[in-house]
Amino acid sequence: MARFLTPIDALTAAIYSILIVLTFTLTFTVIKRWPGYNQPIPEGFSTELFYAVLGASVAWALIDGLMLALLSLLERSEKHRFLQALQAADSDEDSLAVIADEFDFVLEPIASETKRHQLYADVLEHLRDSQPRPVGFQREDFIEALGTALVAMLAVLPSLLPLWLLRDDPLAALRGANIVSFVMLFILGYRWGVYTGANRWKTGLLLPSFGLALVAIAIPLGG
Question: Does 25 reside within a domain?
Fold first, then answer.
């Protein structure tokens, strides 16, 4: 599965899933502080919240996996369109113009016009008689989608444990879930720094702060 799921895709899926959990567990704190709210926490609140968060996490995991598969399909469609445009051109000059439109925005800042022209000529020679890959869903897409969904679901399990284990004490369950979620965000941020070469500790601390800001925005908007 690691052949089809990049570390960044896995980390992103895990981060989004934990943010979903936080939108549930932090909402109660906002309601509790609302003026005039003096209702006791209902019996069975933690259990209901556990199943609600679990259901939302599973739904998000499936959506995330499906979207990643769709993006892979769209990427192949774009490559298919490019190859068709290149091979349908009336002349080599037109074909080179198609290639330039596709790659100039990346290569222009780092390569001279002469070097780019040589590279585009090599690309044209290589792709002139190439056959496009099938555009429809492939086995790799389903493996990638499954891997993303599994990562997203597994990432929230630590945050769900306090909601279940401390279900007789709702406030303790919520605090435990929030603490675990932010610890998980720190760990994922640290791993992001390891993978990208950024400062691990800064990235680890930045991600929980950024997550808290996103949740603070999402909750008042009904998220």
Answer: yes
CA 83 to CA 60: how far, in whole Å? 35
User: Could you tell me the pTM of the whole model?
Assistant: 0.71
- Tell me the two tokens of residue 33: 């502080």
Spatial CB neighbours of 141, under 8 Å, sequence gap ≥ 6: 69, 72, 73
Residue 107: CB atoms within 10 Å: 16
User: If 0-12 CB within 10 Å is exposed, 13-18 middle and 19+ buried, where does residue 59 land?
Assistant: exposed
Instruction: Indicate the residue type of 7.
Output: P
| Buried/exposed code over 7-23 (b: 16+ C-beta within 10 A; e: otherwise) | eebbbbbbbbbbbbbbb
How many structural domains is the chain composed of?
1
Residue 133: which region, alpha, beta or left (left: phi > 0; alpha: psi -120 to 50)? beta
Average pLDDT score over residue span 201-221: 76
Task: With respect to residue 160, please indicate whether it lies within any of the assigned structural domains.
Answer: yes
Q: What is the mean pLDDT of residues 160-185?
A: 87
The 10s digit of each residue's pLDDT in 30-57 is 555 545 555 666 667 778 888 888 888 8
Residues 182 and 25 sit within 8 Å (Cβ to Cβ): no
Number of other CB atoms surrounding residue 142 within 10 Å:
13
pLDDT on residue 93:
86
Look at 153-157, 205-209, 210-214 and tell me which has the smallest mean pLDDT: 210-214
Q: Structural domain of residue 101, as residue ranges? A: 14-32+42-218
